[in-house]
Amino acid sequence: MRNQNKMRQTGCPVAFGLDTFGDRWSFLVLREMMLKGKKTYGEFLGMNEEIATNVLADRLRHLENEGIITKSRDPENRRSNIYALTDKGRDLASVFVEIILWSGKYDRRTIALKEAVDKIKKDRKRFEASIRAS
Amino acid sequence: MRNQNKMRQTGCPVAFGLDTFGDRWSFLVLREMMLKGKKTYGEFLGMNEEIATNVLADRLRHLENEGIITKSRDPENRRSNIYALTDKGRDLASVFVEIILWSGKYDRRTIALKEAVDKIKKDRKRFEASIRAS
Predict the structure, then answer these.
(1) Do A106 and B100 lie within an 8 Å CB cutoff?
(2) Where residue A12 sits, what CATH number does that domain have?
(3) Of the candidates A8, A88, A111, which has its C-beta nearest B49's C-beta?
(4) B16, B96, B103 ranked by CB distance to A107: nearest
(5) Residue B75: which residues within 8 A CB-CB, separation 6 or more?
(6) What is the CA radius of gyration of chain B?
(7) pTM of the model
(8) How far apart are CA B93 and CA B115, in angstroms?
(9) Domain that holds residue A21
(10) pLDDT at B17
(11) Are residues A34 and A1 in the same domain?
(12) Do B113 and B78 have their domain in common?
């Protein structure tokens, strides 16, 4: 589990970023929102990496507390919630792009997916804009 | 502790990046190398975030296994090791820059350190070059 209350007090911007969005499951939830347009708990639960229900609930609460996502009632289904990125969340698009480019260069596995890498190489600005619009 | 053998097999470049360098302690060790020019176990142990010895040893081994850093004997002290970034490690400079910029925008705490943020805003290319030269 992610450690709670672990915002480190050193003032370092790298540590701040890691403590805010940088645990791996949080980041994968953001990927589902940014790259796949997912919006609901049920949709996140279906991610390929098989996130556990308690971990997903914890990370959604964490990201909401950090002001990176918002939660609101689905107007079409009042028993369901819709999650959306805030500006603070959308501004992580550049971090995503750099991680994808780095992985595209160094992931030699045959299973490596190149679609996002190729899109960024072709038109980075367009790709970032599409993430921000998610 | 970081989970061992947790390289996820979905082929996603975001997951690959996170599994390779994205646990928080690994990233802080890289920060010590890139931004502070540290090279030895003893120097890393002195980081402000107070890393535990077993965690530090684990992360150094992990980063070496992933080809992000190399370890060699210190020619001036044969009981000590020198750690250095590989090209694969240096190529994370862009990821660092984006995280620092994002944190610079959103860390409202009074303890937030702005030095790196200001340097990047002033001359990003120069800052990245200085990281790569570390």
Answers:
(1) no
(2) 1.10.10.10
(3) A8
(4) B16
(5) none
(6) 15
(7) 0.88
(8) 16
(9) 1-86
(10) 83
(11) yes
(12) no
| Contact check, Cβ <8 Å, B106/A88 | yes
| Element (DSSP H or E) covering residue A69 | strand A69-74
| A9 in contact with chain B, both atoms CB, cutoff 8 A | yes
pLDDT digits (tens, 9 = 90+) for B27-41: 999 999 998 999 999
If asked whether residues B78 and B97 sit together in one domain, one would say no
Q: Which residues contact A127 (CB under 8 A, 6 or more apart)?
A: A97, A116, A119, A120
Which of residues B51, B67, B86 is at a domain's end?
Answer: B86
Residues 104-133 of B with CB under 8 A from A: 104-107, 109, 111-113, 116-117
- Does the beta-carbon distance from A11 to B91 stay under 8 Å? no
Under 8 Å between Cβ of A63 and A69 = yes
- Write the pLDDT tens digit of every residue in B44-84: 999 998 899 999 999 999 999 999 999 999 888 888 899 99
Give me the residue from A13, A107, A112 closest to B107, CB to CB.
A13
Do B129 and B96 share a domain, yes or no?
yes
The number of domains in chain A is 2
- Nearest Cα of chain A lies from the Cα of B4 at a distance, in angstroms, of 14
Q: Across the interface, do B113 and A23 touch by the CB < 8 Å criterion? A: no
Q: Say yes or no: A100 and A71 in one domain.
A: no
Q: Which residues of A touch B95 (CB under 8 A)?
A: 95, 98-99, 102
Question: Searching chain A, which residue's CA lies closest to the CA of residue B113?
Answer: A11
- A31 and A60 co-located in one domain: yes
ipTM score of the complex? 0.88
A48 and A3 belong to one structural domain? yes
Task: Write out the H or E segment, with its range, that includes residue A77.
Answer: strand A77-85
| Nearest residue of chain B to residue A35 (CA atoms) | B14
Q: How many CB atoms lie within 10 A of CB A1?
A: 9
A28 and A80, same domain (yes or no): yes
